Amino acid sequence: MTSRRSFLLGTGVAAASTLVTVPTAEARGRADHDSERFTLAVIPDTQYLFDLDRGDSAPLDATLRYLLDNDDNVVFIAHLGDLTEHGLKSEIQDIGNSFRRLDWRRVGYSVLAGNHDLDQSTDDQRGRTPYLDEFGPQRFKHSPTFRGASPDGYNSYHVFKAAQREWLVLALDWRMSAKGFAWAREVLKQHPKLPCILTTHELVYAGEQQAELSDYGRRVWDELIKDNDQIFLTLNGHFWPPARAVLRNAAGNDVHVHITNYQDRYYGGSAMIRLYQFDLARDVIDVRTFSPWLLGKRELNPLERKEIELTSNADRFSVPIDFDKRFAGFAPVPPRPARPPQIIPGTVAYWRFDELKDLSGNGNGLKQTGELQSAGDHHPDSPSHGSRYFAKAGYLSTVDSAPINGMTFERGYTIEAFIKLPQGFDHPWCGLFTKLAPGSAAGKTGDDPSEPLCTLNVATGGSLQWAVFPRNQNGLSTNWGHELAEDTWWHVAVVNDGRHTKLYVEGAELLRNPSTPATGIATAGDPWLIGAYAYNRVIEKSFYGWLGDVRVVDHPLSVEKFLTSR
């Protein structure tokens, strides 16, 4: 007779799919501030588009229309300076008119002065200019993101909301004075928990291997960026070609410094934009560079066809960032405190491994065989702040008198556990929650009746398996999960509604769940094993890793319920 293990090893384990939500047409242009996926749009130097009587506002107008009406969940737009070629009143007013469509829609955006927008020999104490008349603080009084400007009016800051938190944008002048630097440091001091994106016209340029700080950029780094851990991303224009680098600040954390500028390309850059698409679910920022103006054209000339989207590794790339870890120094996610067990109706057993007893009050006590190590390590959402480390030797089992031993769960069940596999996990087919009795003890003759009546175990590659002899079948009903990352805590759950069984990890339903009805669990009254696997009533393999709270309920729980009641 073929054993389940030898037969199923050849089937492989399918990976769980990722669900991506696509915004509806009605949602286009409306920022979703709760989504973990959002976009910061960056517009670099547009100076050749606003150059006396030689410019053309059409490319920028197309870009701004795109940003208002696209599906990218754009939450903020930042211009990097050199809006115009000469900083003349007529040029400034022309681009001011283009940006007015953002004012009408009350979209958050920032601008800053580049060296072509004013007298480049001056700093932010230069006084009144056409730029300040058009883009000074008075323009942003109805902005949903504008929070203030330096007394001179040339430096400003914005706060936008995304991924259920606030983000700070500093928009800094072409050349900051000592007063400007002091003002920027004060803004950061007043918003100590906000991650900050710094925008300015000059900071880094393209070196031989990567972006390098310019002379002025070195001053900005030394006086502002280096000692302010909140600043994790900087964006500047001015130089070309585009480039990027990762610098290390005084706290030992990464600062991503990027230059983006396309004025040297066809049609003054064709109002190219950079989309910084944040995905906090994946801990990454995906970056794209393209021209909405060219994208919207029906016919393209030979030069335009080459400029629609830029795909070099300086223009299209991804920036991996563990956001929680990167922001932990100034905005740590507060851990949930330890909490008493929530005994919802139908709870059969609730074991917490900071204390080896059944907290449900139903008398499903445990006994220990071999050595287990108490540990303070735990899932961040675990009610108890403790676990037990199973080192391939010891295990737990219910006492002979435990009521759970004889239960058949015909109206369904929910089995939950918190688990973590060690780095280099090499101990497949070890049990998490297993019946000692084999299928033959309940009269089962299908598949391999020496297999346990049911088992939740860790199979090859660290994947989950739930295999059960249900009351209505002679053979096994088996669910499969995907390979779990090592050295990571996971909440796992098996949910049966009386007919069908599903596996869940972190509240996400997995793929390989059988459609054939499987009612209840056949039983012979033997104990349950926690942290061990048995074959024909012989303990074969103890678990290898950490186990946190384990709960059994005699009916199916909804995903929302077992996520909130744990």
Describe the 3D structure.
Helix 2 runs parallel beside helix 3. The chain contains ten helices and 34 strands. With 566 residues, it is an alpha+beta fold. The protein is elongated, with a radius of gyration of 30 Å. Strands 17, 20, 21, 23, 28, 29, 30 and 34 form an eight-stranded antiparallel sheet that branches. Strands 1, 2, 3, 13, 14, 15 and 16 form a seven-stranded mixed sheet that branches.
What's the total helix number?
10
**Structure summary, number of beta strands:** 34
Report strand %. Answer: 25-35%
The global form is: elongated
Q: Mean of residue pLDDT?
A: 92
Q: What is the radius of gyration?
A: 30 Å
Indicate the low-confidence ranges by residue numbers.
1-29
Q: Level of helix content?
A: 10-25%
Q: What profile does the largest beta sheet have? A: 8 strands, antiparallel
- Counting helices, strands and paired strands, the structural category is alpha+beta
Distance between the termini: 41 Å
